[in-house]
Design a protein that fits this description.
disordered C terminus, mainly alpha, single chain, two-stranded antiparallel sheet, 308 residues
């Protein structure tokens, strides 16, 4: 057997064997890489969910207060104040932060879905392309060589897609831990602490008179006490409005940065770098096989029948 044929036999046999192995390994996760990726997505989505829960708690309290009125009766003259209007800035910021968090959580969920689809579908797809390449290696034809080039490019792109998100998730975990985690935790804790009085406002709604016992409970003293507590809680919240809004803005900026880095920059950068690495590792495969151009633009001499 000629050395060239021996080489084709070895390459074709190895390709078919690897294709069979890939076909039966669909859905199998790599021990270290996929474990770290699963942990990253779980932690990222959970932390974003906690921030969203804190934000919605503040928003719910503000919404309830905005629908309330504070009844004051100085010198027997009734006066109704729309106290909720003072909290409009907080409500606006919580709405904006909620939109950013929903976008971030949705994007992370889509990435996680794409990653899981890659685990299930990439190995069979790679097996099909590798099997075709193992067969086409036996044919020396310009058109089939061009087809081999295309199949190799698709195979490498599919392989890069499989490992792109795991690689970018490790980079994202590093960036999040060193640049975002501490600031987000601090802002979320201060926001929960600064808006604690808002939770009291939710429980300070005026009870209605309901029968004899209700009339006794809703005496003038009770109403006066509740009005006083309501006013104090509102004054405290308004006085800390600057700190609450600052923390809401900080969380908004941080999660916009996380969205840009985790969802756009690092995945695309990882994909581009891995494509470049694949091109450097398999230059002949990516550049094509069978067609070589001379400086004057003439192809290597090949029989006319073979070119056809």
């Amino acid at each position: 057997m000629k050395p060239a044929n021996q080489k084709k036999v070895i390459q074709s046999s190895i390709g078919i064997l690897v294709a069979v192995l890939l076909f039966f390994t669909a859905g199998i996760k790599l021990p270290l890489l996929d474990t770290m990726t699963d942990t990253y997505f779980q932690k990222a989505i959970t932390k974003a969910g906690l921030a969203y829960a804190t934000c919605r708690t503040v928003n719910a309290a503000v919404s309830i207060v905005q629908e309330s009125t504070l009844q004051l009766e100085p010198a027997g003259v009734g006066l109704s104040l729309a106290v909720g209007q003072a909290l409009d800035p907080i409500n606006d910021m919580t709405e904006r932060l909620s939109d950013v968090l929903v976008t971030a959580i949705t994007s992370l969920g889509v990435q996680k879905l794409a990653y899981e689809m890659g685990i299930s579908f990439v190995p069979p797809v790679l097996a099909i392309f590798l099997f075709l390449l193992s067969i086409l290696i036996w044919f020396d034809n310009l058109r089939l060589n061009a087809l081999q080039k295309t199949l190799w490019q698709i195979l490498l792109l599919v392989a890069v897609f499989r490992f792109c998100l795991p690689v970018s998730s490790m980079a994202n975990e590093f960036v999040y831990h060193h640049f975002f985690d501490e600031q987000i935790n601090a802002a979320r804790s201060e926001l929960a602490l600064g808006s604690a009085e808002l939770d009291k406002l939710k429980d300070l709604s005026m009870p209605e008179i309901d029968g004899v016992m209700g009339t006794i409970e809703n005496s003038a003293f009770f109403l006066k006490k509740k009005s006083f507590e309501f006013k104090n809680a509102l004054v405290y919240t308004v006085s800390n409005m600057g700190n609450i809004i600052e923390n809401l803005m900080t969380l908004t900026f941080l999660y916009v940065g996380i969205f840009l880095i985790q969802v756009i920059v690092l995945p695309l950068l990882s994909f581009w770098l891995m494509v470049k690495m694949a091109g450097s590792l398999f230059p002949a495969r990516v550049a094509g096989t069978g067609v070589i151009l001379h400086p004057h633009g003439n192809r290597n001499k090949q029989p006319v029948d073979e070119a056809r």
